C-alpha cells in the first residue's frame, strides 16, 4: 500500500508539473508579446493624397507620435489621388504587420474591398475625411469606424457667409444690380458624397434666406488648385463680372480661383473689383487671403482635432476598449460614424 501511495503521489506531481509549467511558459510568452505590443503600436495611415488639408492632418499625427514616444509609430503612404496606387499600397500592407489601419479613400466605393482584404488581420480600420459611399460594410466588420464631418453643415456655413455679405452690402456683390446672385460652383469630385452635400446645402441655405440665385457654371476640379485656376480663367473670359460669386468645396480650389481672378486684375484689395470667393478648410494660406480681403471667407475644420479623433478611436479599439471611451465624441445615428463640427473663418476687418 505504501508503495502504491508513493506511486500515486509521484504521478500526481508529474501531472501537475506537466500542466503548470507549459501553461506558465505560454502565459509568460503572451505577457512578453503583449508588453512589446504595448510599447509600440504600429499605425499605417493610407492617405488620398497630401493636399494642404491632409498634410496638416499628417503633421498633427506626427506631433501625436512625438508626444507619445515609444507608444505609437505612424507609417504614412501617399496614394497621390490614384486608386491603382492605393490598391498597390494595400497589397504591400497585407504583407506587413500593423496594429491599426487609417484609411483616407481615393475611391469612396471601395470600402467593402478594403475591409475584406484586412478582415483576416482582425485589426481596427478607421476611415476618415472621405466618407465611404455606404457605412454598412464597416458595421458588418465590427472593428471599422468613420471619422469626418457633416458636409451639409459646411455648406450651410458657407451659405451664411454669403447671406451676411449680401445683407450688409448687396450692391458690392450684385454687380449688375438685378437682385440675383449669379455664381460658379467648384465641386471637389463628381461622385463624392461630401461634395454633393456641400453643393446642395450652400445654395438651399442662400435661397431660404430669400436670395434668388442663378448658377452660371458648375465644374469638378478634383480638389486641385491648378484645375480650378485653369477653369476659372477660362470662365472669366466668358462671363466677366456676370460671375458675382465663386463657391468652392475646398480652399485649394478657392485659392486657384483667386489666382485666376488676380490675373485679370480682380481680388487684389479693391472692393469695386472683387468677386466673392468662399472655400472650406480655412488653411493658413486661405486665412492670409481672407485677412487681405482677397477672399471672402472659409469654413474651418480642425485638422488636429481630426488627427486626435482617429488616433484615440483606433487605439481604443486596438486595446479592446469601447471606441469612444474617455472621449467627448458621439456616434451619429449609424452607430459607427463620428461627425466633427465646423466653424466660420471670416475677416474681422470691415
UniProtKB/TrEMBL annotation:
GO cellular component: outer membrane-bounded periplasmic space
Annotated localization: Cell envelope
Domain Periplasmic binding protein: 49-322
Annotated TM spans: 7-26
Protein keywords: Calcium, Membrane, Metal-binding, Periplasm, Signal, Sugar transport, Transmembrane, Transmembrane helix, Transport
GO MF, one example: metal ion binding
SUPFAM superfamilies listed in its UniProt record: Periplasmic binding protein-like I (SSF53822)
Pfam families found in the cross-reference section: Peripla_BP_4 (PF13407)
UniProt cross-references to PANTHER family, sorted A to Z: D-GALACTOSE_METHYL-GALACTOSIDE BINDING PERIPLASMIC PROTEIN MGLB (PTHR30036:SF2), D-XYLOSE-BINDING PERIPLASMIC PROTEIN (PTHR30036)
Self-association state and partner proteins as the record states: The ABC transporter complex is composed of one ATP-binding protein (MglA), two transmembrane proteins (MglC) and a solute-binding protein (MglB).
Protein name (record): D-galactose/methyl-galactoside binding periplasmic protein MglB
Amino acid at each position: 500500500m505504501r508503495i502504491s501511495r508513493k506511486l500515486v503521489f509521484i504521478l500526481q506531481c508529474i501531472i501537475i508539473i506537466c500542466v503548470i509549467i507549459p501553461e506558465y511558459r505560454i502565459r509568460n510568452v503572451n505577457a512578453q508579446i503583449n508588453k512589446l505590443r504595448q510599447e509600440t503600436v504600429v499605425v499605417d495611415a493610407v492617405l488620398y493624397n497630401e493636399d494642404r488639408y491632409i498634410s496638416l492632418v499628417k503633421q498633427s499625427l506626427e506631433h501625436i507620435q512625438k508626444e507619445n514616444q515609444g507608444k505609437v509609430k505612424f507609417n504614412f503612404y501617399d496614394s497621390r489621388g490614384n486608386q491603382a496606387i492605393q490598391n498597390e499600397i494595400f497589397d504591400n500592407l497585407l504583407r506587413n504587420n500593423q496594429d491599426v489601419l487609417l484609411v483616407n479613400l481615393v475611391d469612396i466605393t471601395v470600402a467593402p474591398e478594403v475591409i475584406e482584404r484586412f478582415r483576416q488581420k482582425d485589426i481596427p480600420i478607421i476611415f476618415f475625411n472621405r466618407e465611404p459611399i455606404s457605412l454598412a460594410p464597416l458595421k458588418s466588420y465590427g472593428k471599422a469606424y468613420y471619422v469626418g464631418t457633416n458636409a451639409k453643415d459646411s455648406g450651410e456655413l458657407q451659405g451664411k457667409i454669403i447671406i451676411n455679405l449680401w445683407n450688409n452690402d448687396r450692391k458690392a456683390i450684385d454687380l449688375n444690380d438685378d437682385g440675383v446672385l449669379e455664381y460658379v460652383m467648384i465641386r471637389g469630385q463628381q461622385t463624392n458624397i461630401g461634395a454633393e452635400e456641400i453643393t446642395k446645402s450652400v445654395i438651399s441655405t442662400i435661397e431660404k434666406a430669400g436670395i434668388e440665385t442663378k448658377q452660371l457654371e458648375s465644374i469638378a476640379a478634383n480638389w486641385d488648385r491648378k484645375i480650378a485656376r485653369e477653369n476659372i480663367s477660362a470662365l472669366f473670359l466668358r462671363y466677366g463680372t456676370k460671375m458675382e460669386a465663386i463657391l468652392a468645396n475646398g480652399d485649394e480650389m478657392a485659392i486657384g480661383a483667386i489666382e485666376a481672378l488676380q490675373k485679370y486684375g480682380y481680388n487684389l484689395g479693391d472692393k469695386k473689383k472683387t468677386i466673392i470667393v468662399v472655400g472650406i478648410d480655412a488653411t493658413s494660406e486661405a486665412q492670409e487671403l481672407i485677412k487681405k480681403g482677397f477672399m471672402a471667407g472659409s469654413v474651418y475644420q480642425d485638422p488636429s482635432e481630426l488627427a486626435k479623433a482617429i488616433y484615440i478611436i483606433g487605439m481604443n479599439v486596438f486595446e479592446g476598449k469601447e471606441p469612444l471611451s474617455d472621449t467627448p465624441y458621439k456616434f451619429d445615428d449609424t452607430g459607427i460614424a463620428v461627425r466633427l463640427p465646423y466653424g466660420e473663418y471670416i475677416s474681422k476687418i470691415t
